[in-house]
Input
Amino acid sequence: MSTNTTTKKITLTPSWKHYFIAYVLSVLAIPLFGIGLIAFYFVRKKHKNIRFAVTDTQISSIDSKYHRNIDLVNIEKVTIEQGWLQEKLNVGTLLLSTSATSVELIGMENPGQLKQMIEETIARQKKQQEKKNFRRTQDPKHKPGSMDKMDYLTGLWHQGLLSEEDFESERKNFE
Output
């Protein structure tokens, strides 16, 4: 019996609306000795180098210098940061906080809807984690080391060094 575990993966990129002012200023600066073209190049490069990978279990922030992973079960708080213009353009930054670190998903479109989806996924992951931990914490059927002793007694019995009556009486002590 094999278990089929498929992991969904979604790649998110910042919206161009997040860089709206930078794009506008770089286009307006083109007549100033081509400075605008250089600025436009760097804004575009920054925009395209950032991406976020979201799976069933973790969120990864990937840019040209860093690759950071954060497990969904460790996320304690999800907040939205928006300025006035970002609110009008329906973009924002999602701040995912754990006890040790935080990750910013910058320039996300529909941040309210994305926040809700992430919070639902976090709740689902925490529920699955609790089920796993519950299965692990169930008491074992035998005391630690008792099965080793039983194997030792069985070996002695098979070799004829222990009588059947002694073996049965010792076996009843383990049950």
The longest strand covers residues 102-109. Strands lie at 9-12, 51-55, 58-62, 67-71, 77-81, 91-97, 102-109. The radius of gyration is 29 Å. Residues 14 and 107 are 4 Å apart (CA to CA).
